[in-house]
Write a structure and sequence with these properties.
The chain is α+β, with helices and mostly antiparallel strands. The chain has a single domain, classed as 4-Layer Sandwich (Glutamine Phosphoribosylpyrophosphate, subunit 1, domain 1), CATH 3.60.20. The chain has helices at 18-40, 45-58, 102-112, 120-129, 143-152, 225-231, 233-240, 246-261, and strands spanning 6-14, 78-84, 90-96, 117-119, 172-177, 183-189, 210-213, 217-223, 265-271, 276-280, 284-291, 294-298. The protein binds glycine. Residues 169, 171, 189, 191-192, 201-203, 222-225 line the site of glycine.
């Protein structure tokens, strides 16, 4: 017997300014409405989360793929992970440059190598071997990010994790359950603005930025990566799905993040029973899910 598929996505948790709200809601809605019909047609959860995240990577609104933040050297460096909850297989890449879809490169790592995680130059050589288009560095750069980089590059008091100042964190993620009851998750990011070269956040770290296990459900995280990694947030929330209702598990995870490491961020997820979960401790989190066949988006 087949199940009604589930899909939830996020487009980052931070103090998203009013003037960016409609673009965030629209981006989330596009990812849902272009991906959910595929799930209804029977594609795998893995295909669905890759598809949804590719849409969000393409959208310059978000800090992933096109529109990613610039590091201290003014370059885009991208991280991503994808995980299959039926096998616990995952693939991840970090500090990759000049490709639009790091989530797809992460999937190639999972499916075409005997490894789980490739970084930097090695990941880029692999991308070439897999025939990924290597873009001009300017192709992923947007005027908004260049302007923001120029405004912060010489600031002596800049912090990547201040909760209420303009410190964007537009990491994207998707969690799906397909008609066979299999789960998958994908998370993709440009990291934090003005990060050191080679800095890797939580997003591609399995258990921190994402986790999927058919026995538990699946979760994707967003926010201040250095705090999320310390509490292995996505696995923590997945484990909590065993004992708590979906929303309680997500809220407990975010409370722990805040209390234990003064962390900031948000999570989305789906429990093994198929219930949606989300929570965040930032002023806003762009997110949406499908209920009764229709997208419900909020921020
Ligand atoms: N959560 C994204 C990052 O900190 O890199």
């Amino acid at each position: 017997m087949t199940k009604t598929p589930k899909l939830i996505v996020h487009g980052g948790a931070w103090n998203i300014p009013d003037e960016y709200v409609s673009a965030h809601l629209n981006g989330v809605q596009q990812a849902l409405s272009k991906t959910y019909p595929l799930l209804l047609d029977g594609v795998s959860a893995l295909d669905a989360v890759e598809h949804a995240v590719r849409i969000l990577e393409e959208d310059p609104t978000f800090d992933a793929g096109r529109g990613a933040f610039l590091n201290e050297a003014g370059e885009v460096e991208l991280d991503a992970v994808i995980m299959d909850g039926s096998s616990l297989d995952f693939g991840a890449v970090a500090a990759v440059q000049n490709i639009l879809h790091p989530v797809s490169l992460a999937r190639k790592v999972m499916e075409e190598t005997e490894h789980c995680f490739l970084v930097g130059q090695g990941a880029m050589s692999f991308a070439q071997r897999m025939s990924f288009e290597i873009l001009d560095p300017k192709a992923l750069l947007t005027a908004r990010e260049l302007e923001f980089y120029n405004s912060i590059k010489n600031k002596t008091d800049f912090e990547t994790h201040h909760p209420f100042e303009f410190q964007p964190r537009d990491t994207v993620g998707a969690v799906a359950m397909d008609i066979h009851g299999n789960f998958a998750v994908a998370t993709s990011t440009g990291g934090t603005a003005r990060k050191l070269r080679g800095r890797v956040g939580d997003s591609p770290i399995v258990g921190a930025g994402a986790y999927a296990d058919n026995d538990l459900g699946a979760v994707s995280a967003t926010g201040w990566g250095e705090s999320i990694m310390k509490v292995v947030l996505s696995k923590r929330v997945c484990d909590a799905f065993k004992e708590h209702e979906a929303i309680t598990a997500a809220k407990n995870g975010i409370e722990y993040l805040e209390q234990r490491v003064k962390g900031l961020g948000g999570v989305i997820g789906i429990t093994a029973k198929g219930d949606y979960a989300f929570a965040y401790n930032t002023p806003r989190m762009a997110r949406g899910y499908i209920e009764g066949g229709a997208p419900i988006v909020d921020i």
